[in-house]
Amino acid sequence: MVKITLATINDVLIIQEIAYKTWPVTYGEILSVEQIDYMLKSWYETDVLLKNMADGQLFLLATEGDSCHGFAVYEHHYSKGNKTRIHKIYILPEGQGKGIGKLFLDYITKTAQEETTTCLNLNVNKFNKAVLFYKKMGFEIVDEFDTEIGNGYLMEDYMMEKKIAI
User: Fold this and answer.
1) Are 120 and 164 in contact (CB under 8 A)?
2) pTM score, two decimals?
3) The CATH number of the domain where 15 resides is what?
4) N-acetyltransferase domain: which residues (predicted)?
């Protein structure tokens, strides 16, 4: 049975391993190899992950026995507001389609309700198949934008939100 648990600084290596395994599969048809490498190096360096944890981002792991299937990252009261921001959900290819994404969302929703935030909020690449998953889970597209991230690269995202009952 898959368990969702809070990650600690001791789990940074497994988070990095999952990111480096999932990104080429998730974004291989959307982004260049060079952009994937640039983004992984920018966002998954040990110092960056530790700073995210220190700044209040909560990291979750989906584990089953000795195996870790994925991770999620979220933050309550994002930008001092009443939203819970989902920064990341990545599940290893062999773990996809098994309900792990829903388990992450259920866990985050429960903690968001405890924190009395009124909605879940996330950004997702417009061409990512996860858009369909989020729609199925009740999220709606509320905005669309492009963000320059350096080195001439662009993120083309939807912002999606889901209202939650407190």
Assistant:
1) yes
2) 0.95
3) 3.40.630.30
4) 2-160
